[in-house]
Design brief:
With 314 residues, the chain is mainly α. The chain contains eleven helices and three strands.
């Protein structure tokens, strides 16, 4: 009898920014500007790497793939979030929510693995420079990218399936601005403890193990660099890793706080702040850091801009 009276949820209502009603127009403008810069920055990175043959090496191949993944990752969440800031009714269908979560988790997991692959690339480049071209050939690089994406979306499919096979029959107000794991688990009418354990194990594996692999790569890199006799040589070796390290710290720092923290350890406002950092700042950071700190990218950008200005004059 109780089951017959239960209402099956067909849509979810986002209440993430509802507490800041008077600030929503300002938030829309700020987030829109950040999103445009993110898109333009990543598109410029991809185009620059594509057009400059000097950047056709594994390091920049992985960077261009990461930039493309960041574009897709932000596209899954931010346009809908911006639209909801101006809407009175901030809803998403059940299927739309499931699709958003699947894509978000898929690209998020994939990005973690891409960063691990980039760490391995830096290790081979610095620790095994004479064998770099052989070890990091185009075929292996393509396979590493394909394996990262396939594994990332296999994990996201598992997590989304566990979440959306749970019964949703009560409240449908989601305490977030997009469909994420923890807020949806709060709304489910039943619990799947085995499924929740699987979700935690996947999150732990993706975040912690990827970061541990990167950390191991940099321990080996540091050991090799410290053996370089000249200060200039050490500085040059470390400079090729600086951009990657900055992105890694921010990306895994936010991911670890969100997915490996104890339940109910943060307020809604803190969760929103961390999530905005993770979904907006991280994709924006990638092109900014690599364009400001990487001399090869700076030179290639100047060449590209010089060619385009010459073409316009002609």
């Amino acid at each position: 009898m109780g089951r017959e009276n239960q209402t099956v949820v067909t849509e979810f209502i986002f209440v993430g920014f509802s507490r800041f009603a008077e600030l929503q127009v300002m938030l829309f403008l700020v987030f829109s500007l950040m999103y445009l810069v993110t898109l333009m920055g990543n598109v410029i990175i991809i185009t620059t790497i594509r057009l400059n043959r000097s950047l056709h090496i594994p390091m920049y191949f992985f960077l261009s793939i990461l930039s493309f993944s960041e574009i897709c990752y932000s596209l899954v969440i931010i346009p809908n979030m911006l639209a909801n800031l101006l809407r009175e009714k901030k809803t998403i269908s059940f299927i739309g929510c499931a699709t958003q979560m699947w894509l978000f988790l898929g690209f998020g997991c994939t990005n973690c693995m891409f960063l691990a692959v980039m760490g391995y690339d830096r290790y081979v480049s610095i620790c095994k420079p004479l064998r770099y071209q052989i070890l990091m050939n185009q075929g292996l690089c393509t396979k590493m990218v394909a394996c990262s994406a396939t594994t990332g979306f296999l994990f996201s499919t598992t997590e989304a399936t566990i979440i959306f096979t749970l019964p949703f029959c009560g409240p449908n107000k989601l305490k977030h601005f997009f469909c994420d794991l923890a807020p949806l688990l709060e709304l489910a009418c039943g619990r799947n403890y085995i499924g929740e354990t699987v979700i935690f194990m996947i999150s732990f594996f993706v975040v912690f193990c990827s970061f541990l692999f990167i950390l191991l790569s940099y321990i080996l890199i540091a050991n090799t660099v410290l053996k370089i006799p000249t200060t200039a040589g050490k500085r040059k070796a470390f400079s090729t890793c600086a951009s990657h390290l900055i992105v890694v710290v921010v990306h895994f720092g936010c991911a670890g706080i969100i997915y490996l923290r104890p339940k109910s350890s943060y307020t809604l406002d803190e969760t929103l702040f961390i999530s905005v950092s993770y979904t907006m700042v991280t994709p924006l950071l990638n092109p900014v850091v690599y364009s400001l700190r990487n001399k090869d990218v700076q030179i290639a950008l100047k060449k590209s801009l010089g060619k385009s200005s010459c073409t316009q004059r002609i």
